Amino acid sequence: MAMPMAVAKRCMNPACGAPATGAGGDWRKGWPLRSGAFALLCDKCGLAYEQFVFCDIFHLKESGWRDCSFCGKRLHCGCVASKNSYDLLDSGGVQCVTCMKNSAAQSASGQVVPKLFPCQNNLRIFGKSDEVLSGRKFEQSPSLVLDSRNDDLAIVNKSNHPFLVKSIEAGQSSSILRQKEIENGSRQIKWEQPPLSIGDMGKPFLTRSQSALESPQCTRRDDNKDPTTDSTTSESISEACLSMSLGIANNGNRMEATSTVERPILSPTTVIAEGRELTTALSPFQHAQRARHFLTRPPRVGEGAVFDPTRDMFPHLRVARPPAEGRGRNQLLPRYWPRITDQELQQISGDSNSTIVPLFEKVLSASDAGRIGRLVLPKACAEAYFPPISQPEGRPLTIQDARGKEWHFQFRFWPNNNSRMYVLEGVTPCIQSLQLQAGDTVTFSRIEPGGKLVMGFRKATNTDSQISAIANGSLLSETLFSTANDNLGVVSGYPGFLQSIKGAADLHPSSLYDHHMNSADGDVSWLKADKFGSRPDEGSLQFLQKRSRNIGSKSRRFLMDAEDAMELKLTWEEAQELLRPAPTAKPTIVMIEDYEFEEYDEPPVFAKRSIFTIRATGEQDQWIQCDDCSKWRRLPLTVIIASKWTCTDNSWDPKSCSCSAPEELTPKELQSVLQQYEEMRRRKGSYYGLKLNVAEMDASNLDALATAAVFGDVGNQGTASVATTTKHPRHRPGCTCIVCIQPPSGKGPKHNPSCTCNVCMTVRRRFKTLMMRKKQRQSEREEAEASKKMAWMNRDEPEGSNLSRSPQTLDTTRDSSDVAMFDKTADMNKGHIDLNFHPAVRDDHQGQHGTQQPRPVSMVGLMEVASRPLDNYMKQNGLTSLAGEQGGGSSSTATVPPAPVESEERASNELRVASVEREREPDAMAVDEAGDNQQDKSGDDVAAT
DNA sequence: TTTTTGCATGTATCA
DNA sequence: GATACATGCAAAAAG
C-alpha cells in the first residue's frame, strides 16, 4: 500500500539542496516520526528533514524500528493504515499498544516512566558531533542530527531549523532548549551540560515532534485521546518546563507565591499548578519547578502590603502567574495572567487526576470575535506556551475546550515589523459555538499530565462593561462603587469582576482599591457615592482619568459593544447629566455632515446635578439642591457646582444662603418641576432607545421623528422649560446619539431595505433631504433666472409690481405648503443646528439675525409627536393647568414647560411665541403656522396610530 | 459578489 | 523610541 504523501525531491537545507535520487539513494535511511512522516537525512549535508514518504519506499526493515522499543514486540509497518497499533516515538522507535497502556498507567500513578528508551535514563545529547549520544546510535535518534557544517549539534526539521534537544531527566523530564531562555541569564536554567552550541543560531529552536501536529495523523492521534501517549507538542513544553532547575524554590518568592492562592483546592486530585497547593500534589522537584511559575507580582509603588484584593476580595478567583516557561519573555504582561476560577477549574479538569496549569488568557477583541476567524495571540504567550513555529504557515493546533470538544486551529504568525504576530486561525466555529463575543475572555491552560492544551472562556459581564466603561472615561455611576463596596460577597464570587478590571488594560483591582486604601484615613466613602450627590472627589476623578488613559486600544474598541452600550444606557445618561463643559473650555465648532457640533478639547467636568428651568419670559434658571437641607436654590445659569454644595455656599443669593431660609419654590412648583424633570429623563431614555420607539411608530411619522432626532430635538422635546445640559457634550465611545451610532461609510452590518432602525431612517431622511435640497436649488435657480428675465423684460415697470419683487417676497405669495417646504429646506440648507434648540429662545436667535436670515425650522409639531406620552402623563396628573400658572405666576416662579393637551400646548406655544412673532414679518409667521400645521397633522397621525 | 488571506498601519503601551 | 496588537485594506480565491 502506498500512501500518497509528499516526497522530498531535494534536501531542504538551502545551503545544500542535494537532490533526492530515490528511496534510500543519497539519503540516509529515515526514521519515522510520530506524525507518521519520515525524517530524512541528507548524505551530503548531514541534516535531516522531516518528509512524508511512501511507507513502502522506506520500508520498515530499512528503518529498523518495526519492533517495539520497550518490549520488542513485532509491529506493523509504519503506514497510516496500521497506525493505531503502535505509537511512534519522536526520538525514534515505536511503542506497542501494550506498552502505551502500561506507560499510561504508570504515568497516572505518578511513577516515573521511561518513556522513550528503557535502557537509558539520561540521554545526554549535547556536545560536538564526535560525541556519542548515549544509549542510542545517531541513526536511532531521529531528532538529532549533527550539523556537519559547524560540527555542532543541530536538530532540524523540515523547516530547516534546529530544534529541540530532548533530555530524559530521571526518565521523565525532558527539556526543550529555547533560544530566548538561553539568552535570559536570569532564568537560572540549569542545564545538564555545558552550553549548547547550536547550529544556525540565527534560527529559532523548535521543539521536538513539531511534525506531530502538522500532519493529518496527528489529528487522528488526538482522537485517540490517550493522555499518555498523546504527547502533543504542549507536552513537550511541559516536559521542558520540568527540566528546569530553579534556584528560587525556597526563597521569599515561594512564600509570596503561596499567598497568591490561598484557597484549598477543590478536589484532592485536581491541582492548580501554583502556590502551595502544589505541595500536596507534586513532587519536590515539580514543586520547585512550579514555584517559579507564580512569582509574585512586583510590588507596586505605594501598594499596601496587607491588602491583596485578589486574596481578600476574590477568594474564588485565582490569579495565577503563568508558568515562566517557553521561549518568550519570562514575564508576561499581567493582563495575560490567567484568572482562573474554581468553576473553571472544575470545568476544565474533568479528569480528576489532572493538574491544571493555567497559561494565559486573552480578552477577545472585536476582531478576535469577528467573522474573520482570527484570534490574535499575545506574542509572549504564543512563544511561551504554544509550539514553536518557524514558518508563517505555522502548524495545526488542537485545543480542547472545557466541554471536552477538540478544536483544530491553525497556529501561525505573520511577519510584522521585524517581529511576529501570532494568530490562531479558524476560531470562528469555536467562538460561535461558545457564543463568545468581544469582551469575553478566553483562557488557555494545560492539563498535566499529557500537556494537552485546553481553553476555557469567561463571558463578559455587566460589571466588566461598567468598569471598562469607567476606565474608558465614559461611565461614572454609583453602580460600580456600590458593587465593589457594598456587595463584596457578591464580588468575591464574581469571576468576571476581576477580569473586567484586567480587561480594562491593567486596571488591576489592587490599583482600584489602592487608591482608597492608601488614603490617609482609608475612607471609602466615595465608594458609596450617591447617584447624584456626593461623588468621587477630584483626586478620584484624576485617578479614574489616569486609569482611563491606560486603556488599550483593544479595550476601547470592544468594550462598547452594541449590547453593552444599551445596557449602559441608563448609567450613561446619568453620567451625562453630571457632565458639563469645563468652565474654561471653549468649544471648537466642527461640521459633521453640514451640521455644527461643539467639540471640547478639555474633558467635561462632573457637576452636581442641577435642573434648568425657563420662565415665561424666556429667562432660564438653574436649580440646585442643598446637600444639607435638600432645599432647592436658584443659581445663575452658568454656574457649575462641582462639589458638595450647601446653602451656605450660595453666594449668589444672600437671601438663600442659609438652610433656614425658605425655599423659593412652593411644594407644588417643586413637585411639578421634579416630575417633569423625571419625565424628561425617561423620555430622554427613549431617545437613546429610539429604535424601540421607532419600531412602534407609524412609518409615515418616522421621518419626522428621525428628523427631530438628528436635529437633536428628540432628546430635548420636553425641554421647553426643563433642560439638564446646555450643550451636547463631546461624543465619546458608546454615545448612542443619532450621529454616533452610524457606522463609517460603507461599513457596518447590512440593513434590510425595509429596516426601520433609526440609522436607516436617518439615512433615508438624509437622502430625502438631499433630494429636497437639490430640488430646491434647482427651483431657486429657475426662479432666479425667471426673475432676472422678467426683471430685464420689465425693467421699466414701476416698483411694487409683483414681478419685480424679491424671491423672498415672492414666497409670501405661495400657498402655505410650499412656503413651509421652503422654510424647511432653507433651514436645512443652513446646515447649522443647535442641539439645544429651544423654541422659547428661538425668537431671540431670530431677532439677532433679523428677518432676512433663515430661521430654524419649527419643530413644534415634531416635538408634539415625540412628546405625546408626556402630554398624556401631564394630563393624567392634572398638570395641564401648569401653563396657566406659569403665565400668571410670579417671575421668580420656575416656569414649568407647557406640556398640556394638544390644543393647550399649541395655544401655549403660540402664546409664548406670539409676543415675538408680532415683531416679525407677517409672512414669516405664516410660514411657521404652516409648518406647525403640517407637523400637527403628522402628530395626529402618530396619535391615531 | 463574497470570503479569505496576507500585509500594512495606527495607536497604545512599555522600557 | 520600540514594541505589541487591533484592525483596515487590498489582492486573491471561492462561490
Automatic annotation (TrEMBL):
Record carries keyword Metal-binding: yes
Location in the cell: Nucleus
One protein family per Pfam: zf-CW
Predominant place of localization: nucleus
GO biological process: regulation of DNA-templated transcription
A molecular function (GO) term: zinc ion binding
GO annotation, cellular component aspect: nucleus
Stretches assigned to the CW-type domain: 617-667
Gene3D superfamilies noted in UniProt: 3.30.40.100, DNA-binding pseudobarrel domain
Basic and acidic residues biased stretches: 219-228, 777-798, 903-923, 934-945
UniProt xrefs under CDD domains: B3_DNA
Stretch list, region Disordered: 210-237, 772-816, 879-945
InterPro entries to which the protein is assigned, alphabetical: B3_DNA-bd, DNA-bd_pseudobarrel_sf, Zfn_VAL1-3_N, Znf_CW
Official protein name in the record: B3 domain-containing transcription repressor VAL2
Source organism of this protein record: Panicum virgatum (Blackwell switchgrass)
